[in-house]
Amino acid sequence: MRGDKRALARGITLVENDDPAGWALVREIYPHTGRARIAGFTGPPGVGKSTLIASLVAHARATERQVAVLSVDPSSPFTEGALLGDRIRLVEHFLDEGVYIRSMASRGALGGLSEATLQAVLLMDASGKDDVLVETVGVGQAEVDIIDHADTVVLVLMPGSGDSVQALKAGVMEIPDVIVVNKANHPLTDTMMREIRGVLALGPVTDWKVPILKTEAGEGKGVDELAAAIDAHHEHIKQAGTLEERRGRNLRNEVLGLAAVRLRRQLERSLEGDPAVQELLERVVRREVDPASAAEELLRWRN
Ligand SMILES: Nc1nc2c(ncn2[C@@H]2O[C@H](COP(=O)(O)OP(=O)(O)OP(=O)(O)O)[C@@H](O)[C@H]2O)c(=O)[nH]1
Ligand SMILES: [Mg+2]
Question: The whole model's pTM is what?
Answer without folding.
Answer: 0.87
